[in-house]
Every structure is written in structure tokens, then in C-alpha cells.
Design a protein that fits this description.
0% strand; mainly alpha; 48% helix
């Protein structure tokens, strides 16, 4: 599953866009490169029932922003993304949809 697919699934499961979840994480003090993955995973499991894999996609965005390694862009396989920049503003507003 690609990073973007994880984020899209998170939105479907929680009803919140990735950007809305980032705002909620910030409100909890879970932001920036020093955030502990375990804290984010625990929060997302407790409040939204998300599993580790989905939570780790959001951890990446919290720590690194929406950019991902370009090695998966345009490649083949399950982890292929269309862009090196993740869309955080929701499935309904994603360009090309």
C-alpha cells in the first residue's frame, strides 16, 4: 500500500482528513521531528481504532511533512506513489479525482 493509500484509508476510517488529524496531533503536543511514534500510535489506536501500519503513515507526516522519498514515485509494486508530495486535504479535494 502506498503512503497516499494509507492516508486515504485513515480518512475513510476516521472521517478526518490527514490535515485535520495533524491539527489534532498538534493540540496534543504530538508534532515535529522529535515526536515519539509510540505516543502517536497509542493516541490513534485509542481515539480512532487505527492499527500500527496506518498510524506509522501519519507518524511519517508528523515528523517529516508531506514529502516522501522519490524512489517510490513512478515505480512498480504495492508501495508506488504518484507524487513525492502527499495530499493532506482530503480525498474529495484531491486533484485528478
Amino acid at each position: 500500500m502506498s503512503f497516499q493509500a494509507y492516508l486515504d484509508t485513515i480518512e475513510k476510517k476516521t472521517g478526518l482528513t490527514p490535515r485535520e488529524l495533524l491539527d489534532k496531533a498538534k493540540d496534543r503536543g504530538l508534532e515535529g521531528p522529535g515526536v515519539k511514534a509510540g505516543d502517536v500510535i497509542a493516541w490513534l489506536a485509542e481515539d480512532y481504532g487505527l492499527g500500527r501500519g496506518h498510524a506509522m503513515a501519519l507518524v511519517h507526516v508528523i515528523k517529516n511533512g508531506p514529502k516522501i522519498d522519490s524512489k517510490h514515485v513512478g515505480s512498480t509494486g504495492a508501495h508506488r506513489d504518484e507524487s513525492d508530495t502527499l495530499w493532506l486535504d482530503g480525498i474529495a479535494t484531491k486533484p485528478g479525482r
